[in-house]
Amino acid sequence: MKVRVFVSLKDGVLDPQGKAVEHALHSLGFEEASDVRISRVVDLCVKTDSAEAAKEKGAEMARALLANEVIEDFRVEVVG
Amino acid sequence: MKVRVFVSLKDGVLDPQGKAVEHALHSLGFEEASDVRISRVVDLCVKTDSAEAAKEKGAEMARALLANEVIEDFRVEVVG
Q1: ipTM value of the model?
Q2: What is the pLDDT of residues B31-62, one digit of tens each?
Q3: Are the Cβ atoms of A8 and B41 closer than 8 angstroms?
Q4: CB within 10 Å: which end of chain A, N or C, has fewer?
Q5: What Pfam family is a match for this entry (chains A, B) (predicted)?
Q6: Who among A28, A33, A42 is closest to B21 (CB)?
Q7: Mind listing the domains of chain B with CATH numbers?
């Protein structure tokens, strides 16, 4: 089953990468851009037949490796 | 307006980051994980009133900075 894990910084956590992209956009003339935040999407296949098991496994993987739960939130979707 | 730019590697392009995550998942005991691919999501605000203009501006920013069109595809959504 195909699983998609969205990993994003928690609200209120500074996003240095987003800040850097924002500055770069401004220097390229895109003054109208603001509040740039960067997130990750991890697509992977899980060897299981049940969507529920795939979603649970995706959450386990997120807690174990894909997300740093001190500063990041994650959301898991089964996409196929 | 809030714009979301999805940036992902083109099909067929090797994803070293995905491979590294896959190996790490296997070493943590998640043998059932495979085909790991990592994408980026860039959320930003664009000072404009029209969704169409925001989407077009998002695409311009993607072409100028956010995506490397040699190896990456991008998709733009207006989310609010």
Answers
A1: 0.90
A2: 999 999 999 999 999 999 899 999 999 999 99
A3: yes
A4: C
A5: PurS
A6: A42
A7: 2-78 (3.30.1280.10)
